[in-house]
């Protein structure tokens, strides 16, 4: 048993004893008490190895997210991607109000969707929970990312009526944009939000809408959407 206790820390406990002890032979060779102690230590070592591997993965993920977060592009949009040109040149370029107004007049299609609000339910479905309203926005963004890309305008009804994001009752426009950003980061992932999604507040007449441009992701994207009860 000394060779078992003094096994190299680089080796898993099981590898160090698998040639000496088998689960079938251990009771006969060492007795039930020693066998149970060995089996317990084996599972402890396996758990320690799993936790160590998980810590390495978590550390790597945190470092990656931190790096991505520092490289997040500013809202004034100095980024240019020649492969993904959208409205007015660069897909991250802030759109002109007239261009967004033309989109609204054009109506919904395979690559264009409208959402009345980001979080507030309106009549006749005013009892709809906030997480359901937000979930519909998240699913729309995911759908665009997983297919050919597309554009989403929040603050517009399905029939093209401009309600404005003022209907969401945030304190100001910055709070709206911050809430949208937090949803993208926590429910879809900062790596996808940073690389494939751009959102911008656009004035339309005496209101504001939120224009979102999505380009196809090079990886499958999933949204953490809470299902509606019942």
List the helices and strands and how they pair.
Blueprint lengths: L1 H4 L7 H5 L8 H45 L14 E2 L2 E2 L6 H10 L5 E4 L14 H17 L3 E5 L18 H24 E8 L2 E8 L16
Parallel strand pairs: 3-4
Antiparallel strand pairs: 1-2, 4-6, 5-6
Helix pairs in contact: 5-6
Written description of the protein model:
Residues 108-224 form the Schlafen AlbA-2 domain. Keywords: ATP-binding, Nucleotide-binding. This is ATP-binding protein. One of its GO terms (molecular function) is ATP binding. By secondary structure, this protein is α+β, with helices and mostly antiparallel strands. It has a 4-stranded mixed β-sheet, with helices on both faces. The chain has a two-stranded antiparallel ribbon with strand order 1-2. It has 2 domains: 2-64, no CATH class; 76-214, 2-Layer Sandwich (Methyltransferase, Cobalt-precorrin-4 Transmethylase, Domain 2). The chain is built from 6 helices and 6 strands, in the order αααββαβαβαββ.
């Amino acid at each position: 048993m000394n060779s078992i206790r003094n096994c190299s820390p680089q080796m898993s406990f099981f590898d160090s004893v698998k040639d000496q002890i088998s689960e079938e032979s251990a009771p006969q060779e060492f007795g039930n008490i020693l066998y149970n102690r060995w089996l317990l230590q084996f599972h402890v070592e396996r758990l320690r190895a799993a936790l160590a591997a998980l810590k390495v993965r978590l550390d790597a993920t945190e470092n990656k997210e931190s790096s991505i977060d520092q490289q997040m592009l500013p809202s004034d949009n100095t980024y240019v991607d020649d492969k993904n040109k959208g409205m007015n040149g660069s897909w991250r370029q802030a759109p002109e109000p007239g261009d967004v107004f033309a989109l609204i007049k054009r109506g919904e299609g395979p690559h264009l969707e409208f959402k009345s609000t980001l979080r507030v339910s309106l009549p006749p479905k005013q009892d709809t929970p906030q997480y359901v309203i937000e979930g519909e926005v998240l699913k729309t963004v995911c759908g665009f990312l997983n297919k050919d890309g597309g554009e989403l305008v929040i603050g517009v009804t399905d029939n093209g009526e401009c309600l404005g994001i003022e209907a969401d009752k945030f304190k100001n426009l910055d709070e709206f944009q911050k809430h949208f950003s937090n949803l993208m980061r926590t429910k879809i992932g900062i790596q996808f939000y940073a690389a494939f999604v751009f959102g911008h507040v656009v004035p339309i007449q005496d209101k504001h809408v939120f224009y979102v441009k999505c380009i196809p992701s090079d990886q499958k994207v999933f949204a953490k959407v809470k299902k509606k009860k019942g």
